[in-house]
């Protein structure tokens, strides 16, 4: 559980983009190919992939190998066998829909077919009479036409009412998605208050509406008007949306369509969530499964030290970090991305011990700390003071046998040193860097640096960093 929480907290922004992008691609596959045979095969391949992961976790080597082969072959099968279906789906969508659109399944409903057909015929001034029965039986009211029993489509309706078709003058009766009769004769209305330009077709529509609960749609071939007859009334329909509403109310499909729309939205939302969950699970399995170990030597950075104090001594200035993570992340680590920082704000004068914890180490996201060597670093601090110390030359080697050192003068003879109080109190002198005697002859001067040991010692600003040694040598018998 702790590792899972750590993986969540160690998510990089690149990982979030990675998961989001692949999830969106998977979701687009669902939107584009749902309902196709290729999509069903893809679902089957996904189930096989899960089965393979279970087999791997259980140590079933042969089973996992066989399933992996089937999954690999399945990808080839989808591309080769269903290439025509894939091409048809992609060609049916524009570029915007492929990358962004989320619409319902492309299925033309009965109502949409009727609306499109009616207004297409009205635009062409093609007369038509379409009957959609209600709850009441029409057998005793209309004179039976020619049985049709054909599946309804826009092309079928247009062909029935084509002016050269022998059955175009009668009414077509539509029940559900079937055209059951054509060339049916309807009873004429005897009302005398109808406009004079309404002919036999409109009187037939109104006559049936007066005696039954059917909905009748009449199209005028002279004016191209669309008229709906229902409940003894004639209504001129000028917009497709209005005719669609009337058909929905008559056929009782408005509520059904609303429920289908809600179901559709829920399915799309569920598909999006499943895509994210699936890709995230794959990411976690991959991140956990390709763990690589690496050891990195990292310098220790001391922070928030009191300016009045100085670090006198440390047990170690570097630590060895054992790191884990994916091979790609381990290889991409740069030295400046990892830091070990110790906070000295609460330290005291004298020895201090600091345990290196995960909070002390700055790591790139996705990298896991496995171990630290050494786990504890000792730091000795002291208050800075100034002390004037005499300078003494650190002679090394020997003069030639016939010479002796007659005189050596140091300028300046003392220097001001800044360092830890505890250390400077124990020091009585400060030495120069080593000066070899081997090459000294006669008289001369040498400029030499002071040997600041330990390195925490510093020379005060007003003192010189070098001293000058004036020497004189002479022969032993002089």
Account of the 3D structure:
The chain is 37% helix and 31% strand. It is α+β, with helices and mostly antiparallel strands. The protein folds into four domains: 11-104 and 257-288, no CATH class; 110-252, YojJ-like (1, CATH 3.40.1700; 290-382, RNA Polymerase Alpha Subunit, Chain A, domain 2, CATH 2.170.120.30; 383-475, Beta Complex (RNA Polymerase Alpha Subunit, Chain A, domain 2). The strands form four sheets. A seven-stranded mixed β-sheet has the order 2-4-3-1-5-6-7, sandwiched between helices. Strands 9, 12, 15, 17, 18 and 20 form a six-stranded mixed β-sheet that branches. Helix 7 (110-123) runs antiparallel to helix 10 (240-251). It is rod-shaped and about 160 Å long. The model is unreliable at 104-108 (pLDDT under 50).
Gist of the model:
With 478 residues, the chain is α+β, with helices and mostly antiparallel strands. It contains 13 helices and 21 strands. It folds into four domains: 11-104 and 257-288, no CATH class; 110-252, 3-Layer(aba) Sandwich (YojJ-like (1); 290-382, Beta Complex (RNA Polymerase Alpha Subunit, Chain A, domain 2); 383-475, RNA Polymerase Alpha Subunit, Chain A, domain 2.
């Amino acid at each position: 559980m702790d590792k899972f929480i750590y993986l969540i907290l160690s998510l990089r922004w690149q990982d979030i983009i990675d998961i989001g992008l692949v999830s969106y691609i998977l979701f687009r596959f669902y939107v584009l190919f749902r309902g196709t045979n290729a999509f069903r095969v893809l679902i089957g391949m996904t189930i096989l992939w899960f089965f393979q992961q279970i087999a791997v976790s259980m140590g079933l080597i042969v089973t996992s190998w066989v399933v992996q082969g089937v999954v690999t072959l399945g990808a080839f099968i989808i591309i080769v066998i269903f290439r025509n279906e894939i091409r048809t789906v992609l060609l049916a969508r524009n570029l915007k829909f492929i990358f962004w659109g989320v619409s319902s399944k492309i299925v033309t409903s009965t109502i949409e077919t009727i609306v499109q057909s009616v207004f297409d015929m009205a635009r062409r001034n093609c007369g038509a009479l379409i009957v959609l029965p209600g709850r009441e039986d029409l057998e005793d009211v209309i004179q039976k036409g020619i049985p049709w029993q054909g599946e309804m489509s826009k092309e079928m309706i247009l062909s029935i009412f084509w002016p050269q078709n022998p059955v175009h003058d009668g009414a077509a009766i539509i029940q559900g998605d079937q055209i059951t009769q054509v060339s049916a004769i309807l009873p004429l209305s005897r009302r005398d208050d109808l406009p004079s330009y309404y002919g036999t077709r409109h009187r037939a529509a109104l006559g049936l509406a007066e005696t039954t609960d059917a909905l009748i749609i009449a199209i005028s071939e002279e004016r191209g008007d669309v008229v709906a007859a229902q409940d003894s009334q004639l209504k001129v329909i000028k917009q497709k949306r209005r005719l669609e509403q009337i058909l929905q109310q008559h056929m009782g499909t408005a509520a059904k369509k609303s429920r289908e729309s809600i179901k559709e939205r829920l399915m799309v939302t569920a598909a999006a969530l499943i895509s994210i969950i699936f890709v995230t699970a794959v990411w976690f399995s991959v991140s956990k499964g390709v763990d690589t170990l690496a050891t990195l030597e990292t310098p220790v950075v001391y922070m928030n030290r009191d300016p009045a104090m100085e670090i006198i001594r440390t047990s170690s200035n570097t630590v060895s970090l054992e790191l884990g993570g994916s091979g790609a992340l381990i290889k991409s680590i740069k030295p400046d991305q990892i830091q070990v920082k110790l906070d000295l704000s609460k330290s005291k004068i004298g020895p201090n011990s600091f345990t290196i914890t995960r909070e002390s180490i700055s790591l790139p996201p996705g990298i896991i700390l496995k171990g630290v060597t050494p786990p504890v670093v000792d730091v000795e601090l002291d208050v800075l003071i100034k002390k004037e110390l005499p300078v003494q030359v650190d002679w090394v080697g020997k003069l030639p046998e016939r010479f002796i050192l007659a005189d050596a003068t140091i300028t300046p003879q003392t220097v001001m040193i800044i360092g830890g109080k505890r250390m400077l109190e124990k020091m009585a002198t400060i030495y120069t860097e080593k000066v070899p005697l081997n090459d000294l002859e006669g008289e001369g001067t040498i400029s030499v640096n002071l040997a600041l040991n330990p390195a925490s010692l510093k020379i005060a600003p007003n003192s010189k960093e070098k001293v000058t040694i004036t020497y004189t040598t002479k022969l032993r018998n002089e």
